[in-house]
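Anyone able to model this chain together with adenosine-5'-triphosphate?
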Amino acid sequence: MQGLFDSFISHDLAIDLGTATTLIYVKGRGIVSREPSVVAVQLDKRGERRVLAVGKDAKEMLGRTPNGIEAIRPLRDGVIADFEVAEAMLRYFITRVAPRWPIVRPRVIICVPFGITDVEKRAVRESAESTGAREVFLLEEPMAAAIGAGLPVTEPAGNMIVDIGGGTTEIAVISLAGIVYSQSLKVGGDRMDQAIVQHLRRKHSLLIGERTAEAIKIHIGTASRVRELEQFEARGRDIVHGVPKVVTVHSEEIREALEEPLMEIVNALRTALEATPPEISADIVDKGIVLAGGGAQLRGLDQMLRDQTGLPVLLADDPVGAVVLGAGALLDNPTLLRQVALP
Ligand SMILES: Nc1ncnc2c1ncn2[C@@H]1O[C@H](COP(=O)(O)OP(=O)(O)OP(=O)(O)O)[C@@H](O)[C@H]1O
Ligand SMILES: [Mg+2]
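re: yes, here you go
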């Protein structure tokens, strides 16, 4: 009963506003919402945008909308590209999980990419405040991901976390509750999808949408050579004749198509390892690299990174949830929260 009563008093939240997925964690309840960061809007006669659908329903509409309706991903490359729509999306998700008039207004932790600008910070803070938050904390995603993946971030030992999201890959080394090194590159699941779109266009004269490319990646995509070839029937439009066409693609050609974006990640990882102080490098040799983010679920990626770096590589238990789980854990640890949140 106490839990029920608590939920009327306050609803402290942690939010991971991702390029691909938005997750919400409620203190005492865990992850309560995990939805695609997509909003479908309709232009009314006065040219104003009205929200038609948010999340899964809106994602279904991507690339399939008639005139006057638009399915928008308000975040691109890890940053907010459309503030108005991002705020509408955030408000929709929050009001769905939290009561409109709680007795105590909630504290909210929002995870943001490492190194976002002050303007971006202010915008994120303001959209959270506009949804009724009492106090807003901004937390850098690599720190959140490391905590969520269960790394001992407060110890004087190096931890390396690599979060491969939709828009970005963030590589970070953390020790003593601080970020020793961090690098964010604009290569993630979206770039992998684009590489697949290009491959089909060049090799098969087939034009496919980003949703089909993502399905190919998830079903037969791989980062290492596999013994058994798998295939996928890709549906799209023939570039030459302009008619619908089905082409069977194989896992090996998709592996080749993914090589370029994946090598960018490997190179950035090498740079990070070179920039890491020697004592911390020694820790990483023992403890290895922990992977998080949806993109880290690409088949064979852990093995490929093991081969390329010679280090142990582990995938977090819940790669997509790691960031919001880490932030959520801090709702119960105010001391660490104040230590690691952005000023
Ligand atoms: N099984 C899978 N194999 C390969 N990629 C996958 C798989 N599952 C999800 N993905 C990809 O993971 C990406 C989304 O990851 P995630 O939800 O962590 O991103 P995000 O946190 O929203 O993005 P960012 O952190 O860049 O803002 C998408 O590109 C998606 O296609
Ligand atoms: Mg992310």
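The CA atoms of residues 226 and 301 lie 12 Å apart.
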